[in-house]
Amino acid sequence: MRQPSSVVFINGLIGSLDYPALHTTLAPHTVLVPALPGYGGLNSVEPDTIDIPAQISYLHGFIQELAPGEPVHLVGHSVGGVIALLYACRYPDSVASVISVEGNFSLKDAFWSSNVARMTTTEVEALMAGFRADPAGWLTRAGITPTPPHLETAAAWLNYQPASTLQAMARSVVAVTGESSYAEALHALFARTPVHLLAGEHSRDGWDVPEWALEQATSLTVMPGTGHLMMLEQPEQFALAVRQIIDGH
Asked: How far is the C-alpha of 224 from the C-alpha of 201, rounded, in Å?
């Protein structure tokens, strides 16, 4: 194994990636899982201050406080993949590698965010209220069997952020991924920073990864028997997959 380092996990549109198996499986690496503005203990942040650039700025302060002067490994899921990639573009010397866990490479790929971005505030609130009232249905639609552990995690995820955060982040990812400068920035990033791709077996075909990214990625890992919410579906296996990627980096 390489020297222990810090691994920063960045959540997607919904939920937190923090769970015990992540810390135990990745030890002696240090696992850092920030609650970004609008999420967890910061869920009261005004929604009009929440967007991807603001998340990157917050994340930089978080990393500089807890891993000062140390290049970190960034693991970003879905919308968190956008944050991780753009963070590495902005602070290249602070990043050892990026693991994009089905992160959004294009506006086409951010289809669920696009749907939410078009909704009114009332509609987004109703959407989230429906999910929270029926976490088993939310899991089933995601292709996950609603076992008691899965239901517990799903309930925590769905209550981790208000609907206003969901709407603000959805609108921001649509704006960011729709710009031609986004693809240009990623091209430059892949040329200088190790970028690993991690997908679920059941959702890999639906992940819109450009051919150039597949060709230039340092690695591609497909987790068997899982979909887009692989860390909820098989948390121990997800932690092990990340561990193997980092140790082989």
From this structure: 5
* Strand positions, DSSP E, 54-140: 72-77, 95-101
Digit-coded pLDDT (tens) for 52-93: 999 999 999 999 999 998 999 999 999 999 999 999 999 999
Cis omega (within 30 of 0) for bond into 28:
yes
Report phi then psi at 13, rounded to 5: -65, -35
Q: What is the CATH number of domain 6-247?
A: 3.40.50.1820
Give the DSSP H or E segment for 197. Answer: strand 195-200
User: What are the backbone angles phi and psi of residue 122, rounded to the nearest 5°?
Assistant: -60, -40
3 state SS of 159 = coil
145-154 pLDDT, tens digit per residue, is 999 999 999 9
Task: Report the alpha-carbon distance of residue 182 to residue 176 in Å, rounded.
Answer: 7
**Domains in the chain: boundaries:** 6-247
